């Protein structure tokens, strides 16, 4: 009987953990730090960017058509805002067993081919993906570095133009950072993320 109760308790704990992992961070939440391997084999964390005012954390991957479509826009975000104190940190949330084109070696190939100016990090075990509650690729989290720690300011899409053909697009990420730089809170703190679902290996 004790063994059955123990098994039930463990199963319930696992269920709670999964439920918590399913919750996406929102504006005002603390942004969890991390130490993940970059494609250059060096570990990267928030602390890597000592002079940063904040961070543009993007969960993206090699394979999703949306991620591919946003690739140049992510590069442009880093080129524009890293000198202003808001570097891009890209994290691949896909399990490489579930998406074989998202292995670390394939990430290295892509980063080299596209000359990524930002780190592209491998999230072994999808731990950081779960802590942030990233659901799709790409899924963006804009973070401020404050006296109280790293705080999420915006979660969602980079803009409202996944097809990349609307010159009148609303550039959510750029508008958020413009607000933060002016010392104001963003008018929009959450939008619907646009992209492919995070790939996970089937449970045994």
From TrEMBL:
Q: Which domain of life is it from?
A: Bacteria
Q: Where is the Thioredoxin domain?
A: 25-182
Residues of the signal sequence? 1-19
Any Pfam family from its record, for instance, is AhpC-TSA
> Carries keyword Ribonucleoprotein?
no
Keyword Signal (UniProt): yes
- Keyword list, A-Z: Signal
Per its UniProt record, what InterPro entries does this chain match? AhpC/TSA, PRX-like1, Thioredoxin-like_sf, Thioredoxin_domain
Protein name in UniProt: Thioredoxin family protein
Q: Which organism is it from?
A: Flavobacterium hungaricum
């Amino acid at each position: 009987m004790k063994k059955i109760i123990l098994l039930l308790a463990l199963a319930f704990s696992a269920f709670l953990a999964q439920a918590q992992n399913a919750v996406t961070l929102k504006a005002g939440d603390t942004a969890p730090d991390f130490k993940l391997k970059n494609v250059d084999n060096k570990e990267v964390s928030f602390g890597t960017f000592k002079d940063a005012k904040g961070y543009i954390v993007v969960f993206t991957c090699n394979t999703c058509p949306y991620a591919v479509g946003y690739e140049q826009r992510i590069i442009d975000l880093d080129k524009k805002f890293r000198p202003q104190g808001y570097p891009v940190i890209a994290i691949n949330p896909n399990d490489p067993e579930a998406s074989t084109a998202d292995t670390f070696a394939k990430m290295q190939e892509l980063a080299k081919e596209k000359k990524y100016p930002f780190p592209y990090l491998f999230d072994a075990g999808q731990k950081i993906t779960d802590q942030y509650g990233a659901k799709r690729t790409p899924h963006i989290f804009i973070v401020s570095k404050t006296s109280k720690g790293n705080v999420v300011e915006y979660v969602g899409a980079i803009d409202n133009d996944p097809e990349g053909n609307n010159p009148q697009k609303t550039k959510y990420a750029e508008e958020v950072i413009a607000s933060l730089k002016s010392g104001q809170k963003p008018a929009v703190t959450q939008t619907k993320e646009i992209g492919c679902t995070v790939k996970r290996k089937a449970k045994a």
